[in-house]
Design a protein that fits this description.
Blueprint (H helix, E strand, L loop, with lengths): L5 E2 L7 H7 L5 H7 L6 H7 L7 H6 L4 E14 L2 E13 L4 E9 L2 H14 L2 E2 L21 E5 L2 E7 L6 E2 L2 H10 L4 E6 L5 H17 L2
Parallel strand pairs: 8-9
Antiparallel strand pairs: 1-2, 2-3, 3-4, 4-5, 6-7, 7-9
Helix pairs in contact: 6-7
Length: about 210
């Protein structure tokens, strides 16, 4: 059965609204709002983590977000079984940055907002390149070398592909790769990839390993 992945509209708060309502609580946030950090690339030269989700909205106005998975989960309390929504959201600028976050709430809209904020705080750089020996075009259309990611029982290996190949991957992986700006790869998966949350996190881990392994 195909996965119903859909885009989240109005994923980024406009700069005018942030200027009016955002009151940074961290040193990094204050530096961003004051203009001392002018780009997302400059931010990651200073710090490895994003302390406030508003920083991403301020520095990456073209960010896109997609709802990857929605599940109803139930928790047993003294008063009985209480249902809530568990959602997974992926964000990216389609140009070298990707983030994944999960949220849980009794209302679906609130769960999506929690997941969206966590995905923005998990935004990380992805190093792209042309690592396929058949291509050697030098353009950042693929990954620079073979990378591997794992979450739970799911493991994925991403191989550099020649330009024009496309994304040879499952539906969840395709959406996350596109959000990261990767266009041509082969993939090989192991484990239960029907577990969309673990599958998405494994792809995310593989992509950010392009940056960690340099």
């Amino acid at each position: 059965m195909p996965i119903k992945i859909r885009e989240i509209r109005d994923a980024v708060v406009p700069r005018e609204e942030l200027q009016r309502e955002w009151k940074p609580k961290t040193k990094i946030g204050k530096m961003v709002k004051e203009g001392r950090i002018a780009s997302i690339d400059e931010l990651f030269m200073i710090t490895a983590r994003i302390p406030e989700w508003q920083i991403v909205d301020w520095l990456v106005p073209n960010l896109k977000a997609e709802l990857i998975d929605v599940r109803i989960v139930k928790r047993t309390l003294d008063s009985g079984r209480r249902p809530s929504f568990r959602v997974l959201v992926a964000v990216g600028n389609e140009d070298g940055y990707i983030g994944v976050g999960m949220g849980k709430h009794a209302e679906q809209r609130q769960a999506i907002q929690k997941a969206l904020k966590r995905a923005k705080k998990n935004l990380a750089p992805v190093i792209r390149g042309c690592g396929n020996w058949e291509c050697r075009c030098g353009r950042p259309h693929s990954v620079p070398f073979k990378v591997e990611g794992k979450c739970g029982s799911v493991r994925i290996i991403i191989y550099p592909g020649p330009r024009g190949l496309g994304l040879v991957a499952g539906d969840v992986a395709k959406h996350i790769l596109r959000l990261a700006g990767v266009r041509d790869v082969w993939t090989k998966t192991f484990g239960n990839t029907k577990t969309h949350i673990n599958f998405a996190k494994a792809v995310y881990n593989a992509l950010i390993n392009t940056y960690r392994l340099l």
